[in-house]
Design goal:
The structure is a homodimer of 702-residue chains.
Chain A lengths: L12 E4 L8 H12 L5 E4 L5 E2 L2 E2 L13 E4 L3 H14 L3 E4 L9 H16 L3 E3 L5 E4 L4 E4 L6 E9 L2 H14 L2 E7 L8 H10 L5 E6 L5 H14 L2 E5 L4 H11 L6 H10 L3 E2 L3 H13 L7 E6 L2 H13 L3 E2 L4 H10 L10 E2 L6 H13 L5 E6 L7 H14 L5 E5 L3 H12 L4 E2 L2 H19 L14 H13 L7 H10 L7 E4 L2 H11 L3 E6 L12 E5 L2 H18 L7 E6 L5 E10 L3 E8 L4 H4 L2 E5 L5 H9 L3 H5 L10 H17 L3 E11 L4 E3 L2 E5 L3
Parallel strand pairs in A: 1-2, 1-5, 5-6, 6-7, 10-11, 10-12, 12-13, 13-14, 15-16, 15-17, 15-18, 18-19, 19-20
Antiparallel strand pairs in A: 3-4, 8-9, 8-11, 21-24, 22-23, 22-24, 25-26, 25-28, 26-27, 28-29, 28-30
Helix pairs in contact in A: 2-3, 5-6, 9-15, 10-15, 11-12, 12-13, 13-14, 16-17, 18-19, 21-23
């Protein structure tokens, strides 16, 4: 069930529920199909009409003489399943179900949608929708939707989980001259989802960039696998809404989808190379830039301007986006000095001054574009008295063509005075914005995408042949048999040991003699802790003794703890007393795991200790597809990393050992889906090695 | 020298350097003055022409028969000072100096500018510029600039430090239908600056909101005083560029101004109620919203939409901006349920569905606007097949008029389909954006402004009658006499003591006997530290002894430290040995002060200890105008605050004592401008009281 076949270029399209009444959805679809210029057969299906919009109409899809690859269904919801079955009988490959009244309306609708999907499966049909606006391809051409207008031909593919948003964007795009290769309204995603459509667009020669509005992702694991491939081919930009808790509630009342946490989405997008847009404006600013600019070779930006103010604003944004201001070569500076007026600013930003005309822009741009230290160029222009937007743009276009590897973007500040210039930029396939900020934000997106695309393909290198799966299984078996889901400290330590995660030795003693023996084995000092799944605050009931240095202390400690617990919590089940070796203090870290509904296990690592929730210095990665290099990148994102590298003269921590411990934790949670949560806090990191101190593992009944 | 008189409404305007040649600046100004509809006398001054653009021209300003309040100078730079002097002789009140070639060109230009300013001072004239585009008032009307077009009449005052940006914004504003009450190009700010123009606009009945593009602030201290007053009257929105280090360099090469740190600007803006825009787009989105919306009574936002997607996006943004989604009353819900289709979403956002027409919007809006739990309303609309943008907008306008205290903003997604509706919104004085995000961002700005404006006026309540200024002066005198700028620990402790900042006792002992006596006085345990301005790493040379519990220990410690230091650093001057009482550990905080070039002393407080630079959990306030309530707000911004209030069962810290200590530190640095830096780290905060442990004070030669 991979990929889409003939969805956008079908041989024959049936419109089931076609109507001759203007204003009806079934009428709009037929008209759109005709007006789109679609070259195959268009077959309105309606039992009452002989002819619709000048085309022969058929009582049923099975009555159509020619081949029908695609059927667009706009009949009432209760008729959809039957219509789908008939499509199956006819040999239709693909359905676009416009009709609403399915999952989005509640339980009954959900049942109806299941029936519909089952019918599709039975006949091997794929389906877009239900509850969608349809799909459009400007290159086939094809407009199997009920939109009021058709998009301008272009090279942006737009996928939208919200039909009304697709309609709005289409309307808006025409007013700003933005073109699309294809548009698909994903609706309820009963069968096909963004995953198949992203994969399709990635292989589409007419599409240069894929822009999506999503409220959730259909299948997190598959999304990761498929989109990771797609982004190697072309940029995928996603505006994912429902980021806030309130927004997610609104999203879920809207689509009935169970959304993963926004943090997981953020992590997933980053790990598979998706550029995440933060607003609708940014989604399309990025789409424009990606569709019109090459991916630059690096992050060094040059700015050429005729006014200081916008140059400063652009420079601020270069820094805010973690880009670099290009440092020109000596030769470039010398040439600029020779050719520009004495008052001109020669260093980046280059200011050709308010009396600069097109020739001065051309001169400066020639030097700047040719400079090997420049990766991308932003041309800022204010409508000064002598500014020549059109002539200047001619120079910009020529230079952009001469240096096809360097993005050259415009920031033309103004209205009517700049219109001609902006239009020529757009017609020449260059990105031009009204203000400096979006131009710099666009370069930032291009640079981030380039870094992802050009990084060597990550290999799955989290394989540790020495892990002992059987030992872990045995522990979990015992825990479940004991009707528990939370492991005791000694059990968790055993799991860690089985997976080679270095941890302080912990054993369970049921008698004082046993405790002394264990303490002698592991060496002093030791800690004693009561082992009981019912006692959460062990210290409060006198259930902990620290810093015990000799056998006598252990013996006395054991007895005292037992007495304390028996006195204060006589009914609590006590499994014994845990003996843990006290480890020397190191840098306190945390390694953790939570399982996201959509994307599976998510690993966390960062600053540990009791203030972990306060300081929130933790970074995240999804365990699926995680690599050692990614773990290094993950650690480098934390403030703890500065500590680990040796802060204020302290010795650096053993980073390779930490990477290994995180990797082994990821391996553990990938191998054991029944692990619900892990919380190792603190992990003491030393100059040599590390040690997990307190390991909490919760499992679920698998 | 306060305020502006007759700048925008002068009796008689001379244009010195007027020209009859089209394209010349001196010609554009005369034309603009004529075309503006200015009702007073316009007097071109040019020794060669008898008539310019149909007006009598005069050889010199002194030859003009009528009164001249304002002279616009566009003569070459070398002639400007003479022209200014003649204006002074004529009795001109105000100058607008368009001419460039002053401070911005370097040292000579700076001298010329000083001469010009001196000439103005001599005659009591005020000056805008030099090196500016001029100024415009659409209500007087008056256009004393060389802009190509005139702005649409409106109620936004725009002040711009960049002339080209002003020109660009003017050009752009006409294309988007945005109106201005006045525009001023500040140029080099040789005399007048944003300060006077903000104060003027605050009192201008035609101005509702003040928008500024600034690269620096002329006088930080006066800016604070004046703008704090202005923002009580009307909103001031500022885009301050040069925020990045690279941007500040670009700004400083541009204007030659010495910019304060961006953090200080951020703090200053917040403390005086300025809404800071983060981009040029946001500057005007906020300006539009402020000019068209009332300030809401609270932060509870209601959303009415005809499509789920944009509703979710808006909801996300409500949360991101720390606004609240309004919770409707039971009555509202019941009414909505009764009047809307079963599938409609009744809870916020209210979804009137894709088939919702104007009547359904009107119904929902009536209920939502009337709800007492709603402070502001966003109307989102997608161009669905049946959407009625114009009719819906009529309902929106009526309801906005019916509830004048509640902002009602539009987010009309689309292009041509929405144009009529958007236009009616604009004509009706309502704010309408193309996407949901700017509408929510605008409400966030309105809410923040309202909170500032409506807060009781802060009183200067940092007066501590018990402070001992003489004691501090004596310490500084001794330090300077000793040719030092860094205080010894004992000196710093004495300063703290004089200002009532609780600190661990520190004394300086020159003999072992003295040390023992001091230790006995303060009580054990104590720490000994070598006191020498030349020894920075005291521990490394054996210059520190901690945890001394008895006289014998102190005696031995004293001798050992002296021996160690004499052996390892025989040439270091040693003032003696500091005896400090060891204090019990508390929550580690930092209190600090750096002096900003523009805004003076800036107080910092937050999490202390050795990781202070790593964790960066510190918040800032300018000491000028600081109040106890502001200090409380400052503390509440830090993560440390969570600790101080009692984290994970710990006892809360003595917050009033901390507020007092911060306030006394602020008092100290306000009283002693010679204090350059203070760094008190750690401060131990206890359940009762606190104690400053390590106090570093650096002074400058005053």
């Amino acid at each position: 069930m991979e990929g889409l076949t003939n969805f956008y270029n079908p041989a024959g399209v049936a419109v089931i529920g076609a109507s001759s009444k203007p204003g009806k959805v079934g009428n709009s679809i037929v008209k759109n199909m005709i007006q789109s210029g679609y070259r195959g057969g268009i077959y309105p299906v309606n039992p009452k009409d002989k002819e619709i919009e000048g085309l022969s109409a058929y009582p049923a899809v099975t009555d159509i003489p020619g081949p029908v690859d695609l059927a667009v269904l706009a009949v009432p919801a209760r008729l959809v399943v039957d219509a789908a079955v008939q499509c199956g009988e006819k040999g239709v490959q693909n359905l676009v179900v416009i009709t609403a009244g399915f999952k989005e309306t509640g339980k009954e609708g959900l049942e109806l949608e299941k029936e519909l999907v089952a019918a599709c499966r039975r006949y091997g049909m794929r389906m877009l929708g239900p509850n969608c606006v349809g799909l459009i391809d400007t290159h086939t051409p094809l407009n199997a939707s009920f939109t009021k207008t058709t998009p301008i031909k272009g090279d942006i593919a737009f996928l939208s989980q919200s039909g009304a948003t697709l309609i709005a964007i289409l309307d808006w795009s025409r007013s700003v001259g933005l073109g699309f290769s294809k548009m698909a309204s994903l609706g309820n995603k009963g069968d096909l989802s963004e995953i198949e459509f992203i994969a399709e667009a990635a292989g589409d020669p007419y599409t240069r960039v894929i822009a999506c509005y999503l409220e959730d992702v259909a299948d997190g694991r598959r999304f990761l696998d498929v989109v990771r491939q797609a982004t190697r081919k072309k940029p995928v930009i996603i505006l994912k809404s429902g980021t806030s808790q309130a927004g997610a509630r609104a999203a879920s009342s809207h689509t009935g989808a169970l959304a993963g946490s926004d943090l997981a989405y953020d992590t997933a997008f980053r790990q598979c190379g998706v550029i995440r847009a933060r607003s609708m404006t940014e989604l399309f600013e990025l789409a424009i830039a990606f569709s019109r600019c090459p991916v630059p070779g690096g992050n060094r930006v040059a700015i050429v301007t005729n006014s200081g103010g916008p140059g400063i604003v652009a420079t601020d944004n270069v820094e805010n986006h973690h880009l670099a201001m290009a440092r020109f070569t000596k030769e470039t500076i010398a040439e600029l000095r020779a050719g520009l007026p004495a008052e001109a600013a020669l260093y980046n930003p280059v200011d050709v001054l308010g009396d600069g005309k097109a020739d001065r822009y051309r001169f400066a741009l020639e030097k700047v574009c040719a400079d090997p230290n420049v990766d991308s160029v932003v041309v800022l222009m204010c409508p000064t008295a002598v500014a020549q937007p059109l002539e200047t743009t001619r120079a910009v276009v020529e230079l952009a063509q001469k240096y096809p590897g360097k993005p050259v973007l415009g920031g033309y500040l103004g209205g009517e005075s700049m219109a001609e210039g902006e239009q020529l930029m757009s017609e020449s396939g260059l990105a031009c914005f009204t203000f400096p900020e979006p131009a710099i934000a666009a370069i930032s997106g291009l640079v981030r995408y380039g870094a992802f695309r050009d990084a060597p393909v990550a290999e799955n290198d989290l394989d540790y042949p020495d892990v002992d799966q059987k030992a872990v299984k045995a522990v979990f078996y015992d825990v479940l048999r004991d009707n528990r889901l939370v492991l005791l400290g000694s059990e968790a330590a055993a799991v860690a040991k089985a997976y080679g995660i270095p941890s302080a030795p912990v054993t369970l003693a049921t008698t004082a003699v046993e405790a002394v023996g264990q303490a002698e084995m592991m060496g002093y000092p030791v800690v004693l802790k009561v082992a009981s799944p019912k006692i959460l605050h062990k210290t409060d009931v006198g259930g902990v003794k620290v810093g015990l240095n000799a056998a006598a202390d252990v013996r006395r400690g054991f007895t005292e703890i037992m007495e304390n617990v028996n006195r204060l919590l006589p009914d609590a089940p006590v499994y014994g007393i845990e003996v843990q070796k006290m480890m020397p203090r190191g840098t306190e870290l945390i390694i953790g795991m939570t399982r996201d509904l959509q994307f599976g296990p998510m690993i966390a690592c960062g600053l540990g200790g009791i203030y972990v929730n306060l300081l929130k210095d933790v970074s995240f990665r999804l365990a699926h597809g995680l690599t050692r290099r990614e773990i290094e990148a993950m650690l480098a994102e934390t403030k703890a990393y500065t500590l680990l590298r040796g802060y204020r003269g302290e010795k650096p921590a053993d980073l390779p050992a930490l990477v290994e411990a995180v990797g082994r934790t990821a391996r553990l949670v990938l191998d054991f889906p029944e692990i619900n949560e892990i919380d190792i806090n603190p992990v003491f990191a030393y100059n040599q090695g590390l040690s997990a101190l307190d390991i909490k593992i919760t499992i679920s009944v698998s």
